[in-house]
Design a protein that fits this description.
This protein is an all-alpha fold and about 180 residues long. The protein contains 10 helices and 2 strands.
């Protein structure tokens, strides 16, 4: 499956905690899965520490594999929900936009494989930078985890430029009055 993938595809898998397999490894795992006879066996190499890299929670589907050491504590997840609003509450309106723009640029840099957030032009469309439907969802997921906001799957297509997206996220975190509100969790 991964033999034909180029650098960007392999990088996307690794960020998700999946390690590429050689053809021999894939066939051996496929044979083991068939011999096991269990429904929905998915032979793969997982990088369980990679799944929780950057403080992200291990996906619910994989938490049983990761064990308690890698699963993110519930209190830490709950604290994220007010994290962005709390950071923004201490800032003025212009600084709020810049703070969130840096979050957007950092997440986009990771998804697109750039070395620095500064490589992401805040006024250039994501599509022109190489974002496709898969990377758009990955970016949305990263931003949801970073901000604690519930974000639509169409986020990157609804707000196709980093600066527009940052403004939207500020409005979502701060509410319609432009003042950041911290919700008690």
């Amino acid at each position: 499956m991964t033999e034909q993938l180029e650098g960007a595809g392999r990088s996307r898998l690794r960020r998700g905690g999946v390690q590429p397999l050689t053809t021999e490894q894939g066939l051996a795992l496929f044979e083991a899965a068939v011999a096991w006879g269990a429904p929905l066996a998915v032979p793969t190499r997982l990088d369980l520490t990679g799944l929780s890299r950057g403080g992200r929670p291990v996906p619910a589907l994989l938490r049983g594999l990761a064990g308690g050491a890698l699963a993110r504590p519930t209190a830490a997840v709950a604290a994220d929900a007010g994290g962005l609003a709390a950071r923004l509450a201490a800032l003025g309106p212009a600084d709020r936009e810049q703070e969130v723009l840096q979050v957007v640029r950092a997440a986009a840099a990771v998804v697109l494989g750039h070395a620095r957030p500064g490589d992401i032009d805040p006024q250039r469309a994501f599509k022109d930078m190489g974002i496709d439907s898969l990377t758009a969802l990955e970016l949305r997921n990263r931003l949801a985890a970073e901000t604690g906001l519930s974000l639509p799957a169409t986020l990157i297509f609804d707000y196709p430029v980093p600066l527009e997206l940052a403004r939207y996220l500020v409005a979502e975190a701060c509410g319609t009055d432009g003042v950041a509100t911290v919700s008690a969790v």
